[in-house]
Structures are given as C-alpha cells and as structure tokens.
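Hey team,

Filing this mostly as a record. A colleague (T.K.) asked me to run one chain through the structure pipeline before their review meeting, and I want the input and output archived in the tracker in case anyone asks later how it was produced. No errors, nothing strange. Just documentation.

Input sequence:
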Amino acid sequence: MWTHRRSGLHHQRSAEDHREPYERDKTRVIHCPAFRRLQRKTQILGADSGDFHRTRLTHSLEVASIACSIVRNLASNPETSLLAGILPNEDLISTISLLHDIGHPPFGHSGEVALNLMMREAGGFESNGQTLRLLTKLETSYGTYGLDLTRRSLLGILKYPVNRNQVVAPIQPELLSSQHPTCRINDWLPPKAYFNSEQAEIDWLLSPFNNADRELFQSLQKVPQGQHHGESAYHTFDCSIMDIADDIAYGVHDLEDAIHLQLITRDQVDNAQLRACLHNSGLASPHNTLLNQLFSPDIHLRKQAIGTLVNYLITSIQCVTTDEAFHASLFKHNIALSAEAKLLLDYLKDTIYHYVISAPSARDAEHHAQSVIIRLFDTICASPQTLLEAHSLQNYNNAKNELEGFRVICDFIANMTDEGAYRMHGRLMSEYTVS
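Output structure:
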C-alpha cells in the first residue's frame, strides 16, 4: 500500500526500467519545474548579497543530505534497530526532504502571510498546504494527479494532517485600511493545515489506516480560540526525520551563511547560554576550539565547526513513541533530539531569528515583499484575462465560482520565483504609472 499511486498506475515505464517506486518518485521531483524554481527563491530574505548565500534549492539539498545521514545513523544504532521495518530508504527520505519547501511562494514566509491575507475569504494560504496541492494537482507532468507520487512519499510531506477548518481561528483580525498595501505579519500568520480543496487526496492517503488511527492522527494538540489558530498533534515517522533535518539545516547551515555574510558577530553568539549548551552537549573545550573555528576567517576551519555541530545533532537523535494508542507504526513512532541537543539547536535557531530574520534590513525586505505580493494579487484579480499565462487562464476560466478563481490566481503567484514576482510587479507598476 505504501508504493500505491492515486492514479492506480504502478507499472514501470518499460521492461528495461528497473527503478524502485521511491527512486521514480525522486526522479519525478528532480525533473519537475516547481523544484527547479527553488533555485530562484531565497532562504534568508534580505541576505542575498553575492553567490554564497543559500537558496531554497540548496537548502532542500542540504536537508535531504542530513535526513539520509539520520536514517543511516538510526540503522546502525542497536537501540533503534527494532525500527528497521519502518526506516525509509534513502530515495524515499530524499524525496520527502527535497519536497519540503516546494510549496513556498516568492519571498518565503513574508509572501506566505501576504497571500494568506489576500485569500482570507477564499480558504487562506499556507505553504505546507500548497505543497500538497502542488504535488497532487498543479504539477501536470503526470496528468490529473500532479506528480502522482507514492502514498508514503505524500504522507511524509504531510506535516500538518488537519483540515484548515479544524484549526483556523474563529475570529479574524480586523483589517485596517492603514495596513494596505502591507499587513502586520503577526496578525495574518496562517493556520498550519492542508486546504479544504485537497480533502479527497487526504482521504485517499489515509484510507489504509483504521478509523481509530485516522481520527487520532488528525486530532489537535491545541484547539482554535479567539484569534489564535489551533495546532495539529501528529505527523508520520518519515515526516519527523525530515522536520528535524530541516531544523538542523536552518539552525546550523543558515548560521554559516549569516557568519559568512557578517550578519552575526561572535560577540552576539558567544555568551553564557551558548557556553552552557556546549558544555552540556560535550562540545566545550578549554580553548573554545569550536567557537574559534566557527568564526575563523579560514573557511576550512569554519566547515570543520559546522560539520562537528551537524554530526553531534544527528548522533543525538533518538526514537520516541508518540502515542501507544496508534496501531500503525508509521504514526506510533517519531524521532527527537536529546534534551541537550534540542537546547543547543533551539539557541542557534533563536539566534538566527533575532539577528538575521528580525534584523531591520530583513524587515524592510519583508514589508516590500508583502507589498509586491498584495499589489500583484489585486492587479491580476482586476485583469485575469490579460495577465494570467495560458495554463492558469484555462484553470481560471474553468473555475466554478469567484472563490475558485481567487485560488487559481493564488496558485499562479505562489508558483513565481522572487525574481519573477519582482519583474512582473515592476512591469505592471511601470505601465500603471505611465498610463
């Protein structure tokens, strides 16, 4: 059942095609246009000076590499050998990891918030939900089933297995005219969920599981209340591997970018909290070797420090039971960092957020990006017949109602690269100014 595809077509391309199902999934991902577009979507908004910085594509490749290392470490660890039956192979975990950011719109989370604002009356927008939509519908290389990936690959990218209606806040923020053409980011953060439009795909994905497992898997750890969204409680074993690999890449490799681009100094990082984390993790030394290497002008030494951190985090991972009530092993088991490793990684992620993501230059870029997305949405809504490209226009003309039309426009914008969004915005605003 894990290798089943929704199309029902499980045969190989030819008698000479000896690829396994997950290898075919990986090949489909690598060759799809949406994956290639990740090379033009930045990982850290406002940190795009030079050729060194990571893009969504290089970040995804690093997540895949880390995830494969996690699987190999789990397979070689006697304490986790009992889970050998559910460990994903490298093609499967690579596929899931390569896909984890594929639904991100231009400008990352800034673009996500802006699209959620514009889609507030039409089902909202959230990047993980867009990933599922893109993989099962929008990519047309394999007919009406998107990329037509295997069930287990799709389960692995289902980070939040709940319908938007389950978790969206009952009270939406008041929309102030002064917010336009930007929005207050904390007011319009989207609920983490799949869209209502993909319920049929979810029903197929979860169909092999018994009713009790499906109900528990889609339960909430936090119910929506007031202006606060609810939160899902569970995801699959494979998804937990991808999720921690993503956290490691964000906390360590994005830190490497920030140091190289001089967005973070040693004085900002080297404090009692970090030294306590390093001490508890067994990474401290009398001569502060790790910190000296991390901030060394010698890139070789910096790489040694980054490698040390990544290796420590990977080897600290352990298997945990999510809930004994689950019958399916894929739901019952997840992975987690040790307490000491989690404290260290949380510190690194918080440092990135405080000094890079929340830096004035990044906030300026964020507000500008939101303005671009909002203006594009408004302008395309006003003239979809002339501004949508052929395939999107066909989908728009086939929409059953106005809300479905808005979703098509949202898909069109979400599919853009950062550069493509800037270019279209510049052209449209220039024409508007001239006219």
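Quick notes for T.K.: Residues 237-260 form the longest helix (24 residues). The two ends are 58 Å apart (CA to CA).
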